[in-house]
Amino acid sequence: MAAQFVPRGTWPLTVPLLAAIYVGAAKLGFEAAPAHAVVSSAWPPAGIAVAALVLLGWRMWPGVALGALVANATSGVPVAGALGIAFGNTLEAVVAAWLLQRADFRPSLERLRDVAALCGLGALVGTMVSAAIGVTSLWLSGAASVADLATLGLVWWSGDALGVLIVASAVLAWASASRRLATPARIGEALAVLMVLPVLTVLLFRSGDYVYAIFPAALLAAYRFGPPGATAATLVVSAVAVAVTVAGRGMFVTSTPTNNLFLLQTFIALLAVTAQGFAAAIAERQHAEHELRISGEHLAEAQAVAHLGSWYWDVGSDRLEWSDELYRIFGLVPRGISPTFEGFLERVHRDDRARVETTIRQAMVEKEQFQFDERIVLPNGDVRVLESQGRVLRDPDGRTTTVQGICQDVSDARRSQEALAASEAKFAKIFHASPVAICLVALADGRVLDVNQRCVQMLGYERREDVVGKQPRSFGMWAEPGEQDRVLRELREQRSLPEASVTYRTRGGVPRRAIVSLELIELAGEACGLALFWRL
Does the pLDDT of residue 258 top 80, yes or no? Predict the structure, then answer.
């Protein structure tokens, strides 16, 4: 629960405003007080106080305390009793807001857990504080007798609970409502619903036996407008129902005013919980669908970038599903056809078809995972290369139920690999067939990585293995001390030595002069020197 704390500059104005709203709501609540002048069966200030502390922060408690004191002190309660009641009303709001905060409550009421928290912690538990302190204050101040405390306590608690359930939920939901709902069309629809609801409520209450028929209308508001619609509908219906019942009309007028309002409270509580729970369930479903849609879009984007498609085969129903990218890989319009396993095999190159089918069917019988490469033929005749892998899922009895997997178009990568292999083969052929002596050395330590046959002969050896992998110093190649270090240092600094004069020794120890040309290259992430020797 994230409270939207009031800026310090506006706090002196906000507290009196909250107190005034509390007093006004209290005067309305006292109209439904059959058991005692200040013990209401429907207490809107309780909802206002809880909503204020949840939305605006703990610093708003003086507004609740001031409003409660003024409301009770001006309603015939002794000052001492009014002080005690004001303390209980304030502590009720503080406890309820604290409990909701501990429950990670979100004011939007878009989760079932938030509706449950408001009903349980806010409406049922938190209000016990005010009921206990309130009736005790009335008794101590002489405004109520001991014999009436149990009835007064029950009425007080249920009235405050109803206030939190009806008023707090409406304030919280509307304060958290998304502004994107305020389009002209939706505003018009909402106004139409709010105008129809009170008329329908009056008609149903006059009918006597059909008041619960208002539930579908409230659920419609919850479905169309979410928690704001559910709470607004409940608030409107509750206000009309309380007014009609207090006036002595409707199906709940059966015995004493107190019992009548108990019956009405049950009706309103059922309506509120049903409408708010329904709206929260719809909101949770919409949120889950939104997250699923976003996840699907991200997956589709990732598959498009990677040229990777996924598929799912329900073996029992022979139903095959492809992702949109898999359709595109096969050169088809997404969702343009209903894929089948046989249709997939028909698109596999005829030279690969039997192998692919055997691999999949064998995996369905013997193992759970499979992997293979295959060529496919597109509708325009182009041939693409895929890398495919998948797994087989079985039921508890070991029967194959589904097969799922992925296919990645690796045609471009394969062509690149083939081109690279061809280039390397061509380079190797030129390297070894060149009449010029060529040597490849590691720049880090001067180790010989490769030489061609001409270089082997120039050094007086017979086999490449006599030189490759060794340090030139180990077989006495350099005639002058420091020659290797000098040449490699210059190559690091200049990255290219078009022409350098060096003296080397043959296997027999004969010194020879040569011209060497060196280029700094990178091979498999390692800095190397490519040297070409011409004997002088």
Answer: no
